Amino acid sequence: MFKVHRRAVVIASSVLMNVAVFGASYAADVVRTPSGNGFPISTAVTVPAGFDTVYVSGKLPEVANKDAPKGSVESYGNMETQTTSVLTQIKGTLAGMGLGMGDIVKMTVFMAADPTNDNKLNFTGLMAGYTKFFGTADQPNTPARSAVQVAALVSPGALLEIEVIAVKPHAELKKGKH
């Protein structure tokens, strides 16, 4: 009985330490391979045994300018504004599950051509929004990431949709069970 109790205390202490040090992030247990060129993504992420995988559905930007024509790029804002909107939504979804942005291990960005950018992808705008959430002093963790061009998104005027995969320790570990 003492060994079981002591193990539960050690596991609970470890989880609490991760929360204290990394916010709600359990990312300290995840191995990330930096891109090596200073680009704020991981080329690979290894998740150890004992983690649950959380798949967050694709998110589209919220309307930023209600006075702009419905379904226009102007209604959702430029690429930086749209990226910030989407990542803020994802942050809220994760927070509701007790997770943080540092728990994201994989991200897929679907981008449409920007009519205000010569119908080209606005990768610079994407990165301006992205780097507010990843590779910062407050949140240094970076996910493995893909960015792909699509012909269009389901919402006219939206320039991107982002889906993520995050990880968290098995619920049994968080409760101190084994």
Describe the structure.
The chain is of the alpha+beta class. It has a single domain (31-169), classed as 60s Ribosomal Protein L30, Chain: A. 30% of the residues lie in helices and 24% in strands. It contains five helices and six strands; from the N terminus they run αβββααβαββα. Strands 3-6-4-5 form a four-stranded mixed beta sheet. It has a two-stranded antiparallel ribbon with strand order 1-2. β4 (104-111), α4 (123-130) and β5 (144-149) form a beta-alpha-beta unit. α3 runs parallel beside α4 (123-130). The protein is globular, with a radius of gyration of 19 Å. The chain starts with a helix and ends with a helix.
Topology:
Blueprint: H1 2-22, E1 31-34, E2 42-46, E3 51-59, H2 73-76, H3 79-95, E4 104-111, H4 123-130, E5 144-149, E6 160-169, H5 171-174
Parallel strand pairs: 4-5
Antiparallel strand pairs: 1-2, 3-6, 4-6
